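Checklist before submission:
- one chain only
- standard amino acids only
- sequence pasted in full

Submission:
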Amino acid sequence: MMKNPLVSIIIPTFNRYLIVRETLRSILNQTYLNWECLIVDDGSSKNDFVEILKFSKKDDRFILLQRPNSRLKGANACRNYGIEHTRGDFIIFFDSDDLMGITCLENRVNTFKNYKEYDFLVFSMGHFIEESNCYLDKNRKSINLSNKKTIEEFLFSSVLPWQVSRPIFKSELIKNKICFNENMHNFQDDEFNVRVLANLKLKYKSIDITDSYYRMELSNIKKYDNLIGKQNILNSYYEYTKTMFSILDSVQILNNRNSILVRLFLTFRSNISKGTKLKNVRKALNLINKKIKLSFKEFFYFYFLILLNKFFHNKKGYYRTTQYIKNKIVNE
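Returned file contents:
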């Protein structure tokens, strides 16, 4: 390993200069100096783009890119475009609303010197509401399992093993070998990481040292509380399901059958509404039916749930009926 390897940080952003500038400040303040930060704009307004451009000129280690119009809109396309332009020995994917602790890069690079046999390291992440008030996540998850078991944690656990900002990858093992699914706007952390573990078979090590912080903001939740946000979740869920079944073996599918059905139920109940386009909903249901062979009753219950959400969502008796459906699905 080089004495001072170059770290490439990739940040997608869209119309959020007031937030991303806090993220960029946290990078500018790093004790480790040999980094490049690729800010990939996803088609922001002219004013927002100009403000980010002004900030990026503070330091030539910032590289501002614009997603080409020929690429699909979204954070995943921005990340992929960023990967193509990296020059670093290591790659970190970072979100535009999170913060790095001042020693984040120094800590990650130095820790790699002690774990050279690993392909990527995963660090813990805290929380913050205000930039000046970062704190540890008391419920943080730090696991070191086989790739097969870690994949199951991503797919079936209620808490992800790690979020996109937490790993640092050896660049040579990522660049030109894997990319984010540009058809997805949700579940991208899960989907990308299970392919890293299953297809590239990369070896990881989790280190329970908190060196970055996740923004705890109500708007992060509310951005999905509308028809477009919910439709994106449903469309992404179909892509996620395709990846899941391409990776799991028959024994894993059988052992996690109930978890797959509960996840499908919750995704449908939470996101289908009167204005939902059902093309990818049907595709996801048919794929799951093909892979785990739903009984006639199970298939009926899911179609009944779709109709309930389309025409009777949140009306009298809706909650009791959907709970009945969930219980029947789990206990069939």
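Reviewer check: Residues 224-331 form one domain.
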